Amino acid sequence: MSRREPQFNQQNLYDPTPMPNGIPKVAEIGATSAPLTSAAYFIGDRCKAFNDDYMKCKDESKAGELECLKEGRKVTRCAASVIKDINTHCLQQFNTHWECLENNNHRLWECRKQEMDLNKCVFDKLGLKKTIPGAPENQTPVHLRPKQLYASFPGPQY
Amino acid sequence: MPQDMPPTGGYREVQYKRNVPARGFRPITYLVGMHLFMAYGYYKLFYGIREQNELAREKIWGRLHILPLLQAEEDRDQARRYYADKAREQQLLGSETKIYNSDRFVRPTFGYTPAKAHN
């Protein structure tokens, strides 16, 4: 009978050949999803120009995997600088917030208190501000509301 | 032969109604009450959906802000594998075969397995 041992082969398909020398090296961001979610709006605030530039390059070259490497490096360096600055100045608030996100299925509305602390620290130290584009102007932005209808804790969040 | 006739004064009235007292409030009370209850629910739902929309907006913009970062990382990985494949082909065959009639980068369907795969 043709039976064989079940075996995952993802790790076998990993090709460890490094990038050719002609292309400048860049350290990858190395952060997991929760810290990136936590820092997303600050990355968006500081790196908007680089991000837009990169996406424009991708759009104009239809796919741009090989054409937009330069812009991609700028995007990664900028995001890494944001993470580095947050780690330098607001490490404690940042850790508290992303660990809260990690424990709450990445639901931002469960972690408003930690988010307020982080946003305040980041705005004071780095001058980056969280703004949600396209939100209705005649009401409080959702991340600033003390009462979150869907939070597990029913009372005021902060 | 004498015919059967009703008794004098007529038959007794047949009792077909149940003699049970009606329970509860008047029916109109229940109808109005239900509508008030539903109206309150829809009132809360209205604001709930408004907040859901805002939360969805917050989530998608958070994702959009890190999207170029994730895409750039993926692109670099694809480029690295692409150049590695080309170098390998050059080394093994001594030539480069153009598979597609296009200069566009095409994500390869099949990946390369290193020789020392079974370790």
TrEMBL record, chain A:
Residues 90-123 form the CHCH domain. Residues 1-21 are annotated as: Disordered. One of its GO terms (biological process) is mitochondrial electron transport, NADH to ubiquinone. It is found in: Mitochondrion inner membrane. It holds the Pfam family CHCH. Keywords: Disulfide bond, Electron transport, Membrane, Mitochondrion, Mitochondrion inner membrane, Repeat, Respiratory chain, Transport, Ubiquinone. InterPro entries: CHCH, NDUFA8. GO terms for cellular component: mitochondrial inner membrane. Belongs to the complex I NDUFA8 subunit family. Accessory subunit of the mitochondrial membrane respiratory chain NADH dehydrogenase (Complex I), that is believed not to be involved in catalysis. Complex I functions in the transfer of electrons from NADH to the respiratory chain. The immediate electron acceptor for the enzyme is believed to be ubiquinone. This is NADH-ubiquinone oxidoreductase. It comes from Aspergillus mulundensis. The lineage of its organism: Eukaryota, Fungi, Dikarya, Ascomycota, Pezizomycotina.
UniProtKB/TrEMBL annotation, chain B:
The keyword NADP does not apply. The keyword Transmembrane helix applies. One of its GO terms (cellular component) is respiratory chain complex I. The chain crosses the membrane at residues 28-47. It is found in: Mitochondrion inner membrane. It holds the Pfam family GRIM-19. Keywords: Electron transport, Membrane, Mitochondrion, Mitochondrion inner membrane, Respiratory chain, Transmembrane, Transmembrane helix, Transport. It is a single-pass membrane protein. Complex I functions in the transfer of electrons from NADH to the respiratory chain. Accessory subunit of the mitochondrial membrane respiratory chain NADH dehydrogenase (Complex I), that is believed not to be involved in catalysis. Belongs to the complex I NDUFA13 subunit family. This is NADH dehydrogenase [ubiquinone] 1 alpha subcomplex subunit 13.
